[in-house]
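[09:14] KT: can someone run the structure on this one? pasting the chain below
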Amino acid sequence: MNKLKLSILDLAKFTEETKTASEVLNQSAEIAQLADKLGYTRYWFAEHHNASMIMSMFPEIMVAHVAAKTNRIRVGTGGVMLPNHSPLNVAERFAMLEALHPGRIDLGVGRAPGTDGRTAFALRRTWEAIKNDIFPDQLTELLGFLGHNLPDGHPFVNIKASPDPSLSPQVYMLGSSGGGVEFALEKGLPFVFAAQINADLAVPVLKMYRQRFKPSVYIQEPQSILSIMVFTAETDEEAHYQAAPAVLHWTLLATGKTIVNPTFEQALSYKYSPQEEAVKQTVMRKFVIGTPDKVAEKLGEWVKTTLVDEIIIVDLYSQMQGRRRGYELLAKEVGLC
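[09:31] RB: done, structure tokens below
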């Protein structure tokens, strides 16, 4: 098996094992330290708001925390939902992170709010900001603030995000459809496709990115990553056991139902209706579940068909022991350590 380049995207999710928010975040830091030792490439945190089981509202805080507790691994966001923020604020925060941890900070940028409409209003304080798509201007401003190169005539051209123009993280454009990739192509940015949201579009969108990419001031060659949900264990049975709560959650989500943070007992005893079973089979395309050799083989197939440079695992384990063991087994299988 050829060596795969692997990373982890952490949602800082409550599980039936975690009783406090501190425990959730401490476990995230522990897994990041493990990933650092095992040879994973990067460890990212997502941005979500008003989510009952997710403690990653402001991922930059965890980026700073984890970067200080690790030595080698890149740390970043997957991503900062730019519509919720001032581009100048984001540029300032990440300039500081880059100054604290030079060459190790990633800034993944998304277009979605990462929440419901009313919470988006609470974040932005104006319906106009929600109704009008200002993302193109925001992205231009963010990149300009980071690079100290806003175009002449721009109203903010004399505003600097930091005293040092070299303090710029690696910026990634995120997407789960054909929209995000257009911004990656327009700006010449690395691109990350969320197969956990839309697995069926992963191959055509990522191939299009490779075919249409043109060199830019950011990168000379196309760089792409596929994110997908992965569960690894010593046996297929154990891997499917570890995945059961996530599979139930995503299946019910797709049918308009929900069980907030399903337990193993709920997941293993749940009786799927014929309709839900059909939906489940579709949802399973967003997962890679099995023994290390089978997971590595399937991820290798994803790499071959999408032409990506890297796989980022969406971390949805509900059991800390299984979580640690899964990352250890996969790292060993693909030769990370």
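[09:33] KT: thanks! The longest strand covers residues 224-232.
[09:34] RB: yep, looked fine to me
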